[in-house]
Amino acid sequence: MRLLVVHYFPTAERIRLVLDNLNTHTPAALYGVLPPAETRRIIRKIEFHYTPKHGSWLNMAECELAVLTGQCLDRRIPSVEVLRKEIAAWQGPRNRLQTKTHWQFSNEVARIKLKRLYPPLETAQNPDPPEAP
Question: How does residue 101 score in pLDDT terms, banded at 50, 70 and 90?
């Protein structure tokens, strides 16, 4: 975080970060590794945005990164320049082929597998009103 604020974006008023929900990706975690005054200065410039814990789009991104790793980054890359060239060479044909993710996790399957995360659905459309005593 210090590198982002001090070195890469020293003149930025605000740096927006998109992070997953790992416990070290919080402002509080910075206090464990930096002096309090420096942590406060850094945190004032950073805006934290967290990805959903159960986002299917995140799973698709992770799958794509796994393919990239297996097909392109399966060896030591000597420099950032070579890394950029390798990724561009891999990405070009993949984009031209319009490679897609065939997502098969439907709402119905999610309601079964993730039952505790979903509210129950009403089963009766028009329940009978209770009888008067």
Answer: confident
Least confident stretch, 24-38, 79-93, 107-121: 107-121
* E strands in the chain: 15-19, 46-50
Helices and strands (H, E) in the chain, number of each type: 6, 2
- DSSP state, residue 44: H
My answer on whether 99 and 61 are in the same domain is yes
Answer yes or no: is 133 within a domain: no
CB 14 within 8 A of CB 47: yes
* Residue 26 covered by a domain: yes
Task: Count up the domains in the chain and report the number.
Answer: 2
Tokens of 118: 């979903």
Question: How far is C-alpha 19 from the chain's CA centre?
Answer: 6
- Boundaries of domain holding 58: 54-117
Would you say residue 95 lies in a domain?
yes
CA distances to 14, 24, 33, 73 from 29, rounded to whole Å, are 19, 5, 7, 30
pTM of the model as a whole: 0.45
